[in-house]
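Researcher: Quick one. four chains, 442 residues in total.
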Amino acid sequence: MSESKRLYPIVNADVALFTLDAESRLRVLLIQRANNPAPKGWALPGGLLNPEVDNSLDDTALRVLASKTQVALPHLEQVVTHSGPDRDPRGWSVSTLYYALLPSNQVPAVAGNKTEAIEWADPEKPGHRLGFDHAQMLAKALATLRDKVVRGALPLHLLPPQFTITELQRACEAILGHELDKGAFRRQLKNSVAMEEVPGEFVRGPPRPAQLFRAVPNLPF
Amino acid sequence: MSESKRLYPIVNADVALFTLDAESRLRVLLIQRANNPAPKGWALPGGLLNPEVDNSLDDTALRVLASKTQVALPHLEQVVTHSGPDRDPRGWSVSTLYYALLPSNQVPAVAGNKTEAIEWADPEKPGHRLGFDHAQMLAKALATLRDKVVRGALPLHLLPPQFTITELQRACEAILGHELDKGAFRRQLKNSVAMEEVPGEFVRGPPRPAQLFRAVPNLPF
DNA sequence: GCAATAGTGTCTATTAGACAATATGGG
DNA sequence: CCCATATTGTCTAATAGACACTATTGC
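Model:
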């Protein structure tokens, strides 16, 4: 076994799963590990590549998510691949990092059989010290997500199937960590082909009703 | 051996090495493979991770480059990681793609002992059909490089230690595939801290001499 | 009418693109 | 002086940010 360790590195996928909580704050899923290495340690969810069932590392990431959440097909995006002999106590390892977006109305993550506990944490200040190089990974995943939104991408995958423009703006603000101007935000949406109007309306509470939108199918991000 | 293939994927690094030719056109290094798999097939240079000598996949990529070129430390940047059971005939494989930038005045690549031939090719229209998924990889590497330049990054690593603003503009144009406005290009450089003036001057040929610049050390890209 | 939010309009400072004008060397 | 390029300046259209204004519902 130690011989194969030297010849073949460990290959796995780690996932920073983001969602919005009830107050529209950005949250990331952390798990407390039950098994070796680092039992009781907190980390991003991840799992070893299984060549017999996975057709790609994307599949590995999806398997990891399937064991933690109820959502069928979360949006997945590759961030970066870390590698080295010392970043995992089991030996030379290669880890591909993904971020995933979970719609805010989905069933939240559930504790699986391989985890002691789970927690939706503030990605800027996770309450636990993360093992391996996962603190660095989380920061990189958040930076990549923010970068996409800054460049004009709409985080539609964080929202329910139908949503108002204000909800979309709140999602962007949660990701970026600061408020956005309503006028400028709506103006830019005029040029976007990623979402479209839905004939129905929104009638909740006291305020004026708002137009509902939905994501145009088969679009990136 | 076939058992270990199933348990551990092949891990390797592939590199799209870009440089500028004498006419300041963007070129990418292609190799004709001598060994299995795909002997005589053209591909991007790449090599298997060697856990005994590599401290990261970056090191693997640097080893690959060292065997093809004379340059000591080319600029290296990770692009994406491809994976799957069928993309390499040897079995389940994980390939991390890098792009590298070679200064235009450096000694060009030399044919190594594991390659039949090398060629500096037009990255938009390589003259050979590339094996594996390397055509897709090359397109992705070029897109990533262009993206960085569009976002304002300066490809200083494609240039000799000292260069004129016009040479830098030619490098950007070669990457982007279209011409840039001289005035706008120079205006943006005023806000850049990535390069600085060199007291010396440039005296070649008939035209007016041009100010030489150099990259500020320890800067990304 | 009032509260609260949806949706629109306006003004301005900044910027990218196009392009003109000037500067400076060799021959 | 002429040529070729370096370097700078100018004009304009497009854009982002700030902010004010109007619209529409429930109560």
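Residues 181, 183-184, 187-188, 203, 205-209 of chain B lie near DNA strand C (CB under 10 Å from a C1').
Researcher: Thanks, that's what I needed.
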